């Protein structure tokens, strides 16, 4: 029997009804301004409820929809919000289910990583209640249907070590998606300043600057930066907004950015 990870936040972070979810994503993608970037190797996208972060995430996914050829595999990397564990937990299941269906998981790749490096473990427990990877899957299903995913949750781990390990095994047909929000619960003006400082650090390949900023996905971002520096990928900011910019409630906001890493040598 296949092992399928059931959705944990359908009906909370995004609609539980397939037709509504499909239409919402289509609307977000349609509203996102097209970009002419090519050779996209990685994106960073937010993971809040779609009403807040969906319009920003759509900029990254709109860009992915325009890439050719499609990737053969997608690594989704995000921070664990609900469980503590050492290393990186890779989902050991056959698929991640959402109201739009089931996206297959590349279990063989999870096994390969866990066998080669002790920082990786093929385990499911931390994935059960976690939202940060799940909310990316419906967008992936919309633009990259049936492409195998590798869901990776970061626990207590050195992201630089993770980045070097991934750099050894990634192929040119792999795509990385980092799931991360930015600053949390500041007034809107202050959030813009904090997030702009972090984004500038990211765009300038300043890892130290990123470590001093606010991003719940700081560790996977740093791991991506290691891979990008090794392979000559350059970051491009696609969109930035706060929840306050989207909803009008500006007293305590969360920051969201969409970033694409492009292979400068292609």
Q: How would you characterize the overall build of this protein?
A:
- The protein is of the alpha/beta class.
- It has a single domain (about 5-265), classed as Protocatechuate 4,5-dioxygenase, Chain B (3-Layer(aba) Sandwich), CATH 3.40.830.10.
- It contains 9 helices and 12 strands.
- It has helices at about 20-30, 50-65, 105-115, 135-145, 160-170, 190-205, 205-210, 220-230, 245; strands at about 5, 40-45, 75-80, 90, 95-100, 100-105, 120, 150-155, 175-180, 185, 235-240, 255-265.
- The strands form 2 sheets. Strands 2, 3, 4, 7, 8, 9, 10, 11 and 12 form a 9-stranded mixed β-sheet that branches.
- Strand 5 (about 95-100) and strand 6 (about 100-105) form a beta hairpin.
- It is globular and about 45 Å long.
- The termini are far apart.
- The model has no long low-confidence stretch (mean pLDDT about 95).
Rg value: 17 Å
The backbone outline, from C-alpha atoms, is: globular
Strand content is 15-25%
Order of helices and strands: EHEHEEEEHEHEHEEHHHEHE
CATH topology: Protocatechuate 4,5-dioxygenase, Chain B
Class, according to the CATH hierarchy?
Alpha Beta
Weakly predicted, low-confidence segments: none
Counting DSSP E segments of at least 2 residues, the number of strands comes to 12
Rounded mean pLDDT score: 96
């Amino acid at each position: 029997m296949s092992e399928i990870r059931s959705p944990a936040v359908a009906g909370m972070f995004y609609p539980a009804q397939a037709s509504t979810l499909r239409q919402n994503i289509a609307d977000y993608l349609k509203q996102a301004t097209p970009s002419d970037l090519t050779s996209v190797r990685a994106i960073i996208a937010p993971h809040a409820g779609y009403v807040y972060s969906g319009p920003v995430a759509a900029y990254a996914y709109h860009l992915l929809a325009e890439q050719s050829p499609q990737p053969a595999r997608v690594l989704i990397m995000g921070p664990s919000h609900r469980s503590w564990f050492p290393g990186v937990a890779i989902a050991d299941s056959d698929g991640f289910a959402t109201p739009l269906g089931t996206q297959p998981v590349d279990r063989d790749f999870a096994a390969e990583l866990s066998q080669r490096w002790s920082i990786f473990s093929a385990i499911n427990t931390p994935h059960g209640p976690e939202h940060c990877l799940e909310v990316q899957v419906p967008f992936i299903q919309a633009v990259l249907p049936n492409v195998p995913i590798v869901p990776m949750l970061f626990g207590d781990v050195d992201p630089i070590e993770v980045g070097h390990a991934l750099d050894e095994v990634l192929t040119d047909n792999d795509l990385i998606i980092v799931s991360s929000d930015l600053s949390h619960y500041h007034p809107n003006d202050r959030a813009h300043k904090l997030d702009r400082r972090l984004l500038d650090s990211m765009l300038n390949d300043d890892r130290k600057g990123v470590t001093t900023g606010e991003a719940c996905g700081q560790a996977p971002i740093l791991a991506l930066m290691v891979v990008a520096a090794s392979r000559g990928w350059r970051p491009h900011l696609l969109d930035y907004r706060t929840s306050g910019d989207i909803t009008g409630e500006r007293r305590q906001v969360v920051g969201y950015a969409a970033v694409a890493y492009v292979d400068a040598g292609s």
